[in-house]
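Reposting from the mailing list since nobody answered there.

I have sequence plus structure tokens for a pair of proteins and want to know whether others read the tokens the same way I do. The first protein:
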Amino acid sequence: MAQVQGHCDPRFAKLKALFEKKIANDEELGACMALNIGGQTVVDMWGGWFDEAKTKPWETDTITNVWSSTKTIATFACLLAHERGQLHVDDPVAKYWPEFAANGKEKVLVRHLMSHTSGVSGWEQKMTAEDISDVPRATALLAEQAPWWEPGTASGYHSASMGHLLGEVIRRATGKPMKQFVADEIAGPVGADLQIGAKEEDWPRVSPIIPPPPLPFDLSKMDPNSPVVKTFGNPPMDARVALEPHFRRADMSAINGHTNARALNRVLAAIPNGGSVDGIKFLSPETIELIFREQSNGTDLVIGMPIRFGIGYAIGGGCTAETLPWLPSEKMCFWGGWGGSLEIMDCHRNVTFTYVMNKMGEGIMGNNRSKEYVEMVWNILKEQE
């Protein structure tokens, strides 16, 4: 059996036991989790298997595709560029990317892209997974489109398009493609094993994801002109595309980050911890406060669930508390990835929890496993308050 390894503070022994149980009963295949409190790593655990055939264990340096958990890094990059004065979240996108103003998008702001409220949640033209991996062409198509709803009035999850949109803003504003900006300005300075896409020399340590059960809604029975179908159905996504070279090579910061829980935690712990990681300053308190500026608080036009978005992340309270009652409800921001990976930044307690796995579960907002881990962590934290 592939044992759970790493560090776990004795206060969280129950969390380790739960993780061990889920690996033993095959709920988990391979996974990792990390917990940071007040700038200190108190949990950094990994265990289970690298592959479905169980030929080798998940190791300390195993990485995998984390789908939309990548968005937590893409928006962090935008906040960092804002912090440095390279862009401003309240500026029109067209200030940096003039072509984007086409078809009534001249008033779309950078923060609209960061909060899924721009109306550009997908592609008008029929696309394949290979088409969106051709990032320059796919990005140019988004610039030509009209928004699917009035920008700034509601969120509609920018499932794959967010990476192309924010990637182009970062490229125009900083001179670096998103992949390079993340490597040079975020992952590199703090030694985080995190990349957009995956370099070919790292492919041997990329754990292949195990596809999930089908999504809980049948797109074929829905209005083909609805944002739901136009976003999730174009391109139709088969999770196995994550194994394709074209996918791994692309710069798609909405869906193809390759990393693990430790590396995500290393970066994102800056948010509750005043903007710094081990003395390396990323964000000021003023920039962190931008995350909690509410941009929408209602039913998301694509996900179909009530969710509250700030600038860059979903935030606690409001309708999020009704939809995801197992999340902490105080000052908190979060997101996750298809299949169950999850990142929670609790600014009330200065706590960051991250979880990454290879066996995808049902749903697009956490899975049953991540929900149980989160409930256990915050129950323990609340007992100690």
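The second protein, same order (residues first, tokens after):
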Amino acid sequence: MSHLAADPPPNGFRTFSILWASQSVSVLGSALSAFAFNIYLAQTVFPLESQKPQLALALSVTALAFTFTAMLGAPLAGVWADRRDRRATMLGCDLISAALALSIGLLLLLWQPSFWSLLPLVALTGLVGSFHISAFDTSYATLVSSAQLPRANGMMQTIQSLSGLASPAIAALIVALPALARKSGQDTWLSGLESGVPLAFLLDAVSFSVAALVLTRLRIPSPAAHAPTETAEKRSILSDIGFGWRYILDRRPLLWLLLTFALVNFVSGPLGIFETLLTKYQLAPDWQARGYSFAPALALLTTLGSVGGVLGGVVISAWGGLKRQRVLGVLVPMILLGAAQLLFGASRSLYLSGAALLLFGLTVPFLNAHSQSIWQGQVPPALQGRVFSVRRLIAQFTGPLSIALASFAAAAFPVGWVVMALAAVLIVFCVGQLFNPALRRVEDQAGLDQEAARRSIRRAVLKQRPRT
């Protein structure tokens, strides 16, 4: 028995497909601005090889500003998603994100702000994004039937990959537009720009606006809207957050699954930072010999990683994933992911690095889709906002830690060594988890519910004991 929603609305998959497509537009816009900002840091703010420590620090701080606020906001965002209209939440977040992207774009276009002055806007973008993700992740399970859910999960896994496939080349072109205009002898406002980075942020603002406009025409169920109002009113925010924690802690196989993802996020969290650094330094002799410059070389690697993600998403969407022992669909791809990262850290060839990232990207939709299917089967839709937000917090709390350590490790050791050491730890751990009996029974719904009931009774008994 599972907790999947049994009665999706009529045309629910059509609504999901429109929602998926429109939100993919905003994800593409965000990928454009993020990629352009990395190029801006590497080529404009810290262009010299002697500035490698400063560049590593800037990349790490930027990633931290986004992920740390997103992580801290996740529990509150989950409670909000279970209490408020999810369509309205996504609409509001898209509009706020559009305003933030517009602000950054205008600052870069009209002034020359310091790197540090942009960080509060980046942090706020991460916080708003956590509310959007909570509403989005808990919405589509109410739109599609249980039979269509694996397909929907596969489509969800392709969002980031599709944006990553298109964004590097588009972002590199946008960044280069002013230089191309000057080279062609044009005397326009475009040729007067130092780079096209501000244009990428302006396009990001447009993409969020498009996503918001589409949401105004959609109807998305919100389980909280059908719950007894007195229950929602009496529950405090802290008690709702505590409920999400208890739900997971009372089901130890779910906790094991989360801790495994926490390690994956620790290992792969700073990969975007390492990718920029490896491309700029370790792979430079190879791409220079092949006639590339930095931006196209980085774009090639990012694109190949996204090609892998798209291929993986297409396969998992068509296949639907494992129907039993889905935890194997999580652990085996994680081992392959670690092997791909090990190869990436060791490589000094641009094309071999691209192949490693393609394999890396290929594994991600498989492990994420199987994990998502497990969670959707274990958590009722009306509780998913609270539980999934705590799930996200536990699984991702190591990401900011590894990003913070990345700049120091990259400054003290060769970046390739750091990447390989992290990958080796992941491979050894995941092989060990194949023999973890607790994790292997994560899909035993009855067993997990019985375990949770025993822990709940134990807590109640302890509370009733007289204190001396």
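Reply #1 (J.P.):
I read it the same way you do. The chain has a mean pLDDT of 86.
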